[in-house]
Design a protein that fits this description.
heterodimer, A: 433 residues, three-stranded antiparallel beta sheet, 16 helices, B: alpha/beta, six-stranded mixed beta sheet
């Protein structure tokens, strides 16, 4: 190395420091911009969520407000025969009682009582029938029946009926609206929390419709899904991850499981229809067949979640167990699986929460039928919450629209509860290593 | 005594001054507990051990030394068949424990590992309570059943490992809440709870501070009166302190094996000499 051949001196340390400092401003600006992109993304996501939830809640919260009417009815012996309670027209009796309270006189054709009946739920008539059947002695006395007003009357009270429109364009004419106002002024009509929505099942009459049948159906179906998909999925994943030899067959199986997780759910519905209903004669529209179909659908997700939880357990734990003389099975079930539990539980509960919201496959196995009661067993006809939402959305009555949104609220609450359970269980089972 | 202050020391030099304990000569002459003959290990196509033959005496500590990657841990893991857990590993040759080949089909690795315990480099207690850590082995092997017997086994093992006084009042706290040195002693207690005949230790002190290291070395010294101990160590000072027999490995071959004092004062092979004086490794 001779001095003469040295090239011109490169940048001095001072030059380099100045260059770094100059670039620093640009780097900081880029970082700040990136942080803002992140914030904007979160704000956008939260806005969408707020709009979605806001719309649902504003549409549905009125369902939980119920307008009830309390009517004293004189059980006229001329119209009700104690020996044959079913022969009387109780709806008419109640309507006449209301007209009497309003001070209206009916004409020979009974048009006014017909109009009054449109304001009252048929539930009131049924209550009267039950009272007469229970105690024929009430004939000749005055009994009080209490129940909801009819769907359109309820909508009027909630302010959803536009009085400005021409009479033909609305469900309630001026006279009915006037009656409703007077009934409210007289104090016969009161409002309260609509517990009926949560304690009754589906009905053709909107004011009598509730989600209980759907909630029970969902719960039963979820139970079947959980009992099938979680044990089978976890054990399959344990076998594939810990015990099976790693050869071409297991790779094929792994690829297929990953693909099955991406199959559209309606295909599982078709499978359920063909295999479970047609071939195995499982009762149609039952929580059993719904649970079977959704168990098949959740199985790949549970397997994948369990496998990655098992892979995350450090090999030092396995070596420690083997070193003490534990067999492979003991190592897996006494040491590895307990440590993988948080991941397994999270995966299982999330896949169950996903199954809770599935609609398409259940439509294929017939759970779209109208089911007016609560299913008593796993083979009875049932419906589930998302399908209930679907049915009500397609109904023509306006009052069902608010109920659709309310059912969605119930469904969302159900899912939030399940996610909270997932979080609690996960923290409880978490162990440090 | 090896003492070469004028020798240029490499950065990871061996000891300048090694203190050798007066070793019981008869320990090394005792009948061999383990006999390895022509043991070769392949990981796939790569050969990691080349025809290693070694006798390991009973009631003594045998140290395996050598530079990184020379196959000491691989050899150690052959003894209790931990290499079975590696799918690509193939072991050939004979390793006899009391005359029986450990790789024979009739030997159940689960029972073998109850006779040959292992302590790993990084302490790995189970994420369970201290009591459970020690009680697990005896319970699954049926050595102790019922609460009383298990409590007795746990207490005995923890006392032998020198940990009892420190943890007696918190047996139900997790094993992972102990310090590194305590965890390693817990792991040793766990290993001796199943009444092994041989204890294998794979660099047990490399993750510990000097004081914890000294405690564990003391423990090893106490344990050698009952067990056959094989220890892999990077530290030649440690090998000189605790072992009675030393085997030097290099690039998958066993270069030299013999009494610790002879290896460190008068090695026969020049490679051994170079390693001990710190020329490489």
């Amino acid at each position: 190395m001779t001095d003469a051949a040295l090239p011109k001196a490169g940048p001095t340390p001072a030059d380099l420091r100045a260059a770094v400092a100059a670039r620093l401003k640009a780097r900081r600006a880029r970082e700040a911009r990136f942080r803002w992109y992140g914030r904007l993304a979160i704000i956008a996501a939260l806005s969408f969520l707020a709009v979605l939830l806001g719309r649902i809640v504003t549409q549905g919260y009125t369902t939980f407000l119920d307008y009830r009417i309390s009517v004293p009815v004189y059980v006229d012996p001329a119209r009700v025969d104690p020996a044959d309670p079913m022969g009387a027209n109780y709806d008419l009796l109640v309507a006449d009682a209301v007209l009497a309270r309003l001070g209206e006189q009916d004409d020979a054709r009974g048009t006014l009582s017909g109009k009054a009946m449109q304001l009252l739920s048929t539930d009131l008539g049924f209550q009267l029938l039950d009272k007469v059947r229970a105690d024929p002695g009430v004939v000749g006395q005055t009994v009080t029946v209490e129940g909801s007003v009819r769907a359109d009357a309820g909508l009027y009270y909630k302010g959803a009926v536009d009085a400005e429109l021409a009479q033909e364009d609305r469900k309630l004419d001026d006279q009915q609206i006037a009656w409703l106002d007077r009934l409210q002024d007289q104090g016969l009509v009161s409002s309260g929390f609509n517990t009926g929505f949560l304690t009754r099942s589906d009905s053709t009459e909107p004011e009598q419709a509730g989600v209980l049948g759907a909630v029970v159906g969902s719960a039963m179906m979820l139970l079947v899904t959980a009992l099938l998909s979680v044990p089978i999925g976890v054990l399959a994943a344990v076998y594939l991850e810990e015990f099976s030899p790693k050869n071409r067959w297991t790779s094929v199986i792994e690829v297929n499981i990953n693909n099955l997780a991406a199959v559209p759910s309606i295909v599982y519905g078709l499978l359920g229809l063909a295999v479970f209903i047609n071939w195995l004669a499982v009762p149609r529209s039952s929580p059993l067949v719904g649970g079977l179909v959704l168990a098949l659908m959740s199985l790949p997700t549970v397997i994948i979640a369990t496998r990655s939880a098992l892979k995350a357990v450090p090999p030092s734990i396995r070596e420690a167990a083997l070193g003490v003389g534990a067999s492979k099975t003991q190592t897996v079930f006494h040491h590895v699986l307990p440590l993988a539990m948080p991941g397994v539980m999270t995966g299982s509960i999330l896949s169950l929460a996903h199954a809770l919201g599935e609609t398409a496959p259940l439509l294929m196995v017939g759970m779209v039928s109208f089911v007016p009661g609560v299913p008593a067993g796993f083979t009875d006809a049932a419906t589930v919450l998302p399908v209930q939402v679907f049915i009500w959305e397609n109904a023509s009555e306006r009052a069902f629209h608010e109920r659709t949104a309310a059912a969605i609220i119930v469904l969302l609450v159900f899912m939030i509860v399940m996610n909270l359970v997932a979080i609690v269980l996960r923290r409880r089972f978490e162990r440090r290593w | 005594m090896l003492s070469k202050p004028d020798e240029p020391q490499a950065a990871n030099a061996g000891p300048v001054h090694i203190e050798l304990r007066p070793q019981a000569q008869h320990a090394v002459d005792a009948p061999a507990k383990l006999r390895a003959r022509d043991v070769s290990v392949f990981y796939g196509d790569k050969q990691a051990l080349f025809d290693v033959s070694l006798d390991v005496p009973e009631r003594a500590v045998t140290a395996l030394i050598g530079p990184s990657g020379c196959g000491k841990s691989t050899f150690l893991r052959c003894i209790n068949r931990m290499n079975d857990t590696i799918p690509t590993a193939k072991v050939s040759g004979r390793i006899e424990l009391d005359g029986e080949d450990v790789n024979d089909r009739s030997i159940d690795p689960v029972l073998l590992r109850a006779r040959v315990g292992m302590v790993f480099q990084k302490p790995n207690p189970f994420p369970k309570s201290i009591f459970e850590n020690v009680a697990y082995g005896p319970r699954i092997h049926g050595i102790a059943t019922g609460k009383r017997e298990l409590e007795h086994v746990v207490e005995t093992s923890l006392k032998r490992a020198g940990l009892w006084n420190e943890v007696a009042d918190r047996l139900h706290q997790p094993g992972t809440s102990l310090s590194g040195g305590q965890q390693q002693r817990l792991v040793i207690a766990r290993a001796i709870a199943v009444n092994p005949e041989v204890i294998l230790m794979d660099e047990p002190c490399s993750a510990l501070d000097p004081i914890a290291t000294a405690r564990v070395e003391e423990l090893i010294d106490e344990l050698r009166e009952e067990y056959c101990i094989v220890i892999v160590t990077h530290s030649m000072a440690q090998a000189a302190r605790v072992s009675q027999k030393t085997a030097f490995f290099h690039l998958g071959k066993l270069i030299e094996a013999g009494n610790t004092d002879e290896i460190f004062t008068n090695p026969r092979d020049s490679r051994t000499q170079d390693y001990i004086t710190g020329r490489f490794g």
